User: Which sequence fits this backbone?
């Protein structure tokens, strides 16, 4: 599959799902967090508040791993994304507002809780590698996308 086609396939999958598991390491210990995300292409955006374990871990080591998948009872139906990349804080106010809008559009609950806190920390995660898992095609089938 052409790289552009795989990018579109992965981007669509990310758009159609809403929860990721973010894996970080803090003080040599792994930490995983399930959280909402939005994407623009293969870039993922997450939000947190200062002081959380994930914020501390990203500050210490911005390299993260992410999975996006559904719950399956039959492994033959498994599809998902395995994602590696670097997280960075979004400082630009216009970009933060665009990310907020993406969150508001995808998650109504964010509008309901008046989630405009000035202490919210937005992260952009740029991928270095993304694997699209598709056991519907074949057990263990994986398509790899690599950043250039």
Assistant:
């Amino acid at each position: 599959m052409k790289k552009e086609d795989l990018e579109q396939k992965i981007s669509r999958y990310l758009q159609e799902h809403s929860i990721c598991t973010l894996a970080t390491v803090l003080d040599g210990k792994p930490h995983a967090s399930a959280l909402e995300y939005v994407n623009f292409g293969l870039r993922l955006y997450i939000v947190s508040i200062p002081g959380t374990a994930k914020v501390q871990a990203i500050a210490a080591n911005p390299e993260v791993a992410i999975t996006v998948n559904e719950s399956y009872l039959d492994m033959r139906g498994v599809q998902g994304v395995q994602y590696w990349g670097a997280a960075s804080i979004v400082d630009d106010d216009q970009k933060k507002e665009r990310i907020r809008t993406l969150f508001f559009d995808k998650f109504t609950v964010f509008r309901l809780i008046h989630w405009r806190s000035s202490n919210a920390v937005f992260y952009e995660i740029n991928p270095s590698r993304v694997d699209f898992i598709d056991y519907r095609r074949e057990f263990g089938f994986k398509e790899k996308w690599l950043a250039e």
In short: The mean pLDDT is 91. The CA atoms of residues 32 and 136 lie 27 Å apart. The two ends are 16 Å apart (CA to CA).
